[in-house]
Amino acid sequence: MRTKDNLKLRGVGSRFMIVDAADDAAHTNVFTLNNSAAYLWQSVAGRDFSEEDMARLLTERYDVDEATAFADVRAMLAIWRENGLIR
Amino acid sequence: MVDNFLELVRAGIAGEAPRTELFSGLGPQEWRLLYEMSRKQTVTGICYSAISRLPDAAMPPIDLLMRWVASTERIEKASRRGAEATRSLLELFGERGLHPVVQKGLAVARFYPEPSLREQGDIDLWFDSGDFTRVEEVITALGGKPERHADGAISFVFNGYEVECHSTLIGLRTPATRHALRDEIAARGRHHTADGLPVPAPEMEMLLYTVHIMKHAFGVGIGIRQFCDYVLAARHLKGKYNAEQFATSLRRYGLARWTATLNRFATEYMGADPADLPDAGYLKDAAAGAARLLRIVEEGGNFGQFAAATPSGGNSFIHKIHTFSTFLRRSRFSLSIAPREAFWMAASLLRGSLRN
User: Fold this and answer.
1) How far apart, in whole angstroms, are the C-alpha atoms of residue B32 and residue B257?
2) pLDDT: is B92 or B281 the higher one?
3) A12, B55: Cβ pair inside 8 Å?
4) Where are the beta strands (DSSP E) in B104-197?
5) Measured between alpha carbons, how far is B272 from B231 in angstroms, rounded to an integer?
6) What is the pTM assigned to this prediction?
7) Nearest to A37 by CA among A19, A14, A8, A58
8) Chain B residues with CB inside 8 Å of A30's CB?
9) Helices B202-218 and B256-270, interaxial angle, to 10°?
10) Taking CB atoms and an 8 Å cutoff, what residues of chain A touch B74?
C-alpha cells in the first residue's frame, strides 16, 4: 500500500495535519494526526509499505510490544483507508 | 485588530514567528476576524505561515486552524497550477516567435520565503511593441478568444486563467513620462531569473510595483498583498540596480512624494527596513499619506473588491463609472501625492469610460 499522492503532512505548532484539498472548501478534508501517526506517515510517505513495516517502526521508536503495535497499526490504517489517505 | 493582522503579515513575509503577546489572549471571535481579514486581503497563506510558528497556546481555535490550513493548501495548489500555466504560455508564445516578460504573478512570487503561499490572480505578460502586433494572431492560433480592452491590453483565457497581454510594462499615464519610460525600458532590456523566467530589469521591476500600487490606490483600491510584493521586491533587488539613477527617474516621473508615502507605509505598518527601500529624496513627512493608504487598504481589500460601494455583476459600464467615481473621491489624496499622474489617470479613465 502507499499514501495518496500529493498529500502533505503539516506541522502546526505541536499538531500535525494532512489536507486533502479539492478546489472548493466544501470538498476539502483536514485530518489531524497525533505524534505517533505523524511519525509513521512521515516514515512511509511516497513509498510502498506494509503493516509489518509500520509495526516495526512503532516498536523501534516507542516502548510498545509487537502485538500492541500491530493492533494500533491496523486500527490506524483502517481509518486512513476509510478516509482515502492510502491506496 | 489591525495591528494583530499587520503583525501576521509582517512575520509571514519575513518567514518569522509573530510576536506572541499580540495573539495569546485572542478569543474565537477575534481569530475569526483575523481570518476574514486575511481572506479579504488575499494573504491567507502568508498569515498562515506566521501562525504556524506561534506556540500552541497562542494559536487559533482548532476548528479555525483547520480551515486556515485547508485554505492554505488550496492556495498552494492554485499557485503551482498558475506557475505551470505561466511557463506553458511562455513556451507556447516562444514557439511562435513571441517573447513576453512576466509582470507580477510568478515573477514577484520568487521573492517570497514560500512562493506558493502568494495568491495568484491573473497572469500578466508584457510584450515589446514589435511582438505586440502579433499577439492577437497568436492567441487565436492557440485556440483562445482575444478580447481588447480600453487600455490597449488584450486578454484571453488559458487553462482557466485570465491572461492579460500588455503593450506597456509600467502603467504611467503622463504622455511625456510614457515616452521617457519607453526609452528607459528599451535601454535596460529584460532579465532572466536563475531558472529562466523572463522578468523586467531590476529598476523596472521596482518601478512596476511602485506604480501598480499607486494606480490602484488612486482608483478602486488596493489590498495589502501588493504592499508585500513591494517590500519583498525592494529587499531582494536592493543592490541590483543603481539607487541614485533610480531616484533620479522617480523624481523625473513625478513619483518622489508617492515613493516616500509608500515607503512610510512599508516601514510603519509592515516592518520594512528603510535601508532596503528606494529613496527619491522627498524630505517632508509622509505619515499622513501612509495613514490614508492604510484606510484605503482596510476599506476595500484586494483591489477594492470588498468596499461597500463596489458593484457586483458584469456590467462593464457600471464598473467604469464606479472606477471613475472612486478616483474622483480620492482625487484630493492623489492630486496631493502625484498631481501629474493623477490628472492623466483621470483623463485616461474618462476617455475609457466614454469609449465603450
Assistant:
1) 37
2) B92
3) no
4) 123-126, 147-148, 154-158, 161-166, 190-192
5) 6
6) 0.91
7) A58
8) 66-67, 69-70
9) 90
10) 21-23, 25, 28
CA distance B48 to chain A (A): 9
The answer to whether the Cα torsion of B290, B330, B211, B79 is positive or negative is positive
Q: Chain A contacts of B65, Cβ < 8 Å?
A: 12, 15
Cα–Cα distance for residue pair B286/B191, rounded to 1 Å: 33
Cell numbers 512575520 correspond to: B11
The residue of chain B nearest to residue A15, with distances taken between CA atoms, is: B56
Nearest CB to B77 within list A12, A21, A25: A21
Q: How far is it, in rounded angstroms, from Cα B136 to Cα B123?
A: 16
Do B281 and B256 meet the contact criterion of CB atoms below 8 Å apart? yes
- Chain segment B236-279, per-residue pLDDT in tens: 999 999 999 999 999 999 999 999 999 999 999 999 999 999 98
- The whole-angstrom distance between B163's CA and the closest CA on chain A is 20
Query: Quick one: which of B164, B140, B157 has its CA closest to B212?
Result: B164
Across the interface, whether the CB atoms of A21 and B66 are under 8 A apart is answered: no
For the residues of A21-33, what is the DSSP string, one character each?
--SSGGG-EEEEE
Q: In a mutagenesis test of the A interface, which of B49, B69, B79 is the best target, namely the one with the most A β-carbons within 10 Å?
A: B69
Residue bearing cell 519583498:
B232
B37 to chain A, minimum CA–CA distance in Å? 18
The grid coordinates of residue B285 equal 513627512
Residues B299 and B40: their CA atoms lie apart, in Å, by 10
Q: Look up the ipTM and state it.
A: 0.83
Q: How far is CA A35 from CA A4, A13, A38, A61, B238, in A?
A: 20, 12, 5, 12, 43
Is there a contact between B121 and B305 (Cβ–Cβ < 8 Å)?
no
Report for B110-114, B188-192, B313-317: range of highest mean pLDDT: B110-114
CA–centroid distance for B255 within its chain: 17
Of the candidates A11, A15, A19, which has its C-beta nearest B73's C-beta? A19
